[in-house]
């Protein structure tokens, strides 16, 4: 390939060979073509071997797991006793990998024979969960592991559970491909159910923001107020970035910092006839919430997995159909996969077409609102602005309503207080009249009858004292009434 360094050929190094099978070391080798730019050619493993006790190393890292009850620190160890022990279990698989594989087998709680049958039948009986199948894919034996196991094939009965499992599964033709096919088929519905509704939500959200009469009138209002407030270079606008809607809550009133431009806009919307369509803004933009959860990169990734999965499935199906090998008992791969593709491929083709339509609709949306065909944005970002703004509108409307109720309550209290004050004034007026009227009536009667006698000084004094007492009692009564009302 152009630009790639040519592979280099290196002579084999003169190093000792182990006398027995050792456990494997799970590493990823560096390709020869990368070595010239590395430091590895400056190193030489031959220089290290003289310092190694190879016999001790083999005892410690042998693939044969020995049951040696002797002390591990070497003190008092009977070497002759160690030599007479027979291996009880063989493991050539990397320790951590073997341990994790054993855990999977413990969760399976199935014999290798039953697992073998389940894989051949593509688990038509449903005994393998999706998680188990996914884990099994991780423990497909590598060519290196199979090569090591083959060297000990004669002692297969001594293999550890993980080694025996990998050995048995490798006997299934195209074991890894069958597992991957099974996993793809199991996960397909989940992936389609992830793609399809999100695609639909983004498409509907784009249609709504393009068609919402209420939104368009709100944008007009925002533009009008913005140009009215702004002067110079900041004024005279014909449009604005949609994210500017969120700034309406940052524009505070000079009278109250709790009152913003958005509060004012919502008051107009809720009271002026022209903005009647805007009052149902949440309804006309009901799909922007779903659109704000759509990420095109994620959708493309899922669609790519499905597309690749169907392609690999069809390739494997054709390969299995044309295979010349003997038929295996219980092998249902071709029948099951053939039916699966026929039942599901069409749906995915339709979803891909929907994705293309959604992308086109969303692109139109971006151009419409930005005026720039090169604008790049994710639906989750673009529609997320509208979702956030709807939340601000809802809060502003509730705050306006709370403010209106408080003002109405204050007006009601003031009116009640004024009414009470008027009632008290009327009561005092009537009471004073009731005290004076009897005396006037008596005087008039006496004058008409001729019985009027000028009062003596003592009588005048007594009358004065009597009137003072009555006035005092009247004031006390009025005060008591006031206290009872308060």
What descriptors fit this protein?
two-stranded antiparallel ribbon; Methane Monooxygenase Hydroxylase, Chain G, domain 1; 486 residues; mainly alpha; 16 helices; elongated
Explained architecture:
With 486 residues, this protein is mainly α. Among the domains are: 95-183, Methane Monooxygenase Hydroxylase, Chain G, domain 1, CATH 1.20.58; 196-379, Formin, FH2 domain (Methane Monooxygenase Hydroxylase, Chain G, domain 1, Up-down Bundle), CATH 1.20.58; 455-486. Helices cover 62% and strands 1% of the residues. The chain has 16 helices and two strands. Strands 1-2 form a two-stranded antiparallel sheet. Helix 3 crosses helix 7. The longest helix is centred in the C-terminal third of the chain and has 71 residues, at 379-449. The radius of gyration is 47 Å and the shape is elongated. The chain starts with 53 loop residues before the first helix and ends with a helix.
